[in-house]
Amino acid sequence: QVQLVESGGGLVQAGGSLRLSCEASGIIFSINAMGWYRQAPGKQRELVAWISSGGLTVYAESVKGRFTISRDNAKNTMYLQMNSLKPEDTAVYYCNRNTPTSDTWGQGTQVTVSS
Predict the structure, then answer these.
(1) What's the pLDDT score for residue 30?
(2) Residue from 58, 61, 63, 1 nearest 26 by CA
(3) Separation between Cα atoms, residue 73 and residue 69, nearest integer Å
(4) Confidence (pLDDT) at 59
(5) How far is 12 from 96, CA to CA, in rounded Å?
(6) CA spacing 20 to 30 A to 13: which of 34, 87, 91, 101?
(7) What angle do CA 56, 26, 94 make, to 5 degrees?
């Protein structure tokens, strides 16, 4: 079955950097669009960044210029490089693969940015 496993979260000071990874299994990764979402306490889950199978990218306004989404199809892995982190970036970050017939989420990885 489809499985998405995130890693790379942690505690970092404001202005610092983290790189999240999402390793996929059970799918032909290269033909799938993938996304990163996040959910802060008391808030709805929101899209952070999205990457198409061909490498086109979309970012939330709040992370443009600071975050970079990428993928390595040979490793079945998607990344989120997060720079200039702010306390408001604190959330659980989730990897997502969405198709017309299924919606798959990873277990999430916690990112905490201290001020």
Answers:
(1) 86
(2) 1
(3) 13
(4) 98
(5) 24
(6) 34
(7) 55
pLDDT in tens, 46-90: 999 999 999 999 999 999 999 999 999 999 999 999 999 999 999
Residues 6+ apart with CB under 8 A from 56: none
DSSP 8-class letter at 73: G
Mean pLDDT of the chain: 96
Output 1 or 36, whichever has higher pLDDT. 36
Name the amino acid, one letter, at 103: D
Three-state DSSP at 52 gives: coil
CA distance 88 to 113: 8
Query: What is the distance between the alpha carbons of residues 14 and 11, in angstroms, rounded to a whole number?
Result: 10
User: What does the DSSP 8-state code read for residue 34?
Assistant: E
Write out the DSSP string of 65-84: TTEEEEEEGGGTEEEEEE-S
3-class secondary structure, 61:
helix
Say if residues 36 and 49 touch (Cβ distance below 8 Å): yes
79 beta partners = 21, 70
Single-letter code of the amino acid located at 91: A
